[in-house]
């Protein structure tokens, strides 16, 4: 065998060994990369602030929300909401605190009676949407699989089991409805458990059917229609808003319902004055009044019954804005709209929501961008990444329709056409490029050896 053939065979063996080692290294890295992607996808998605479960955290129903959490039903309810609408019958805090039998309350809070507490709470939830306008003499199955009787009293009152609906359609959300009721609904199975717990003592009040009414002898009085404001406007706030941000000093008129239930102009003036007198928020007040038409737009929206929460950056945060961020047409309006949430939230409701659900997404007036909030350092963090802002001064102004919360940074809406998914993919590709194996010592030696004979082009890895 001549020297040329031996040399070619040697080069071939070295190439095969080099490529084999390189492939083994890449294969060894792939499972780790796949595991990282699985962990990223397994993160719990943020629950929408518009969910009916978040509405349970409202001040009228916090006692019921505490029981739901104690009964370990929060996760099962999230799964039910994810697949269908639900209807919740919620006794208010006053009844649960004062009117609930102390012995029955003690029975529900004992750890050994967790199943009874779960059945009781599931009896208050129907896995379908039942609004007040659809009420009738029907029967629906609750989550605990017991039947709930719906009927209308002779006087027009809506009834469910032995309870009376005191606040129909108290909360209406895309994934469910909450009706306020005047008592706790007790299924027969829970009553039996309670009787056994009390060593066979029968309950004083025994459930009975609906009373029979003779329509020929009973006279009904028809109440006059009330002109009081509705619980919430029929249309969404985006329908009532002006067509878009405008640089004109006068507001661009948006669609109006014609009903001005509240004095929105006075409320907005009061909140602007409070913002100025509070100190440290003059720049935000100046943008609302002078640089944009948002103050007038807010007055119109509040007058028609809409509620707004303003995340107000302090003067120090506003001073860090660059000329480029404010020079584009409509930039101040976009920033202001991104800091407004079309619902009423306080510091307590913000923190309670993120403490229980981890991450919560809030709609903003800057469509289609949403605001992500989460718990951080014992307070609420808005946004993500380095531009995230902490809740700095809480409840600067709260009147039931307008809420102002101070934050320590200006939140910039993401650029159009970009998303975290795309950024994450680019970052992943960059990490993959950085993780490519460098040339080993054996390969470097072979490449140098081939280069001395002018044969470096035989190996693609040497290029």
Automatic annotation (TrEMBL):
<protein>
    <recommendedName>
        <fullName>FAS1 domain-containing protein</fullName>
    </recommendedName>
</protein>
<feature type="signal peptide">
    <location>
        <begin position="1"/>
        <end position="24"/>
    </location>
</feature>
<feature type="domain" description="FAS1">
    <location>
        <begin position="268"/>
        <end position="396"/>
    </location>
</feature>
<comment type="similarity">
    <text>Belongs to the fasciclin-like AGP family.</text>
</comment>
<dbReference type="InterPro" id="IPR044654">
    <property type="entry name" value="FLA15/16/17/18"/>
</dbReference>
<keyword id="KW-0325">Glycoprotein</keyword>
<dbReference type="GO" id="GO:0005576">
    <property type="term" value="C:extracellular region"/>
</dbReference>
<keyword id="KW-0732">Signal</keyword>
<dbReference type="Pfam" id="PF02469">
    <property type="entry name" value="Fasciclin"/>
</dbReference>
<keyword id="KW-0964">Secreted</keyword>
<keyword id="KW-0654">Proteoglycan</keyword>
<feature type="domain" description="FAS1">
    <location>
        <begin position="48"/>
        <end position="185"/>
    </location>
</feature>
<keyword id="KW-0677">Repeat</keyword>
<dbReference type="InterPro" id="IPR000782">
    <property type="entry name" value="FAS1_domain"/>
</dbReference>
<dbReference type="InterPro" id="IPR036378">
    <property type="entry name" value="FAS1_dom_sf"/>
</dbReference>
<comment type="function">
    <text>May be a cell surface adhesion protein.</text>
</comment>
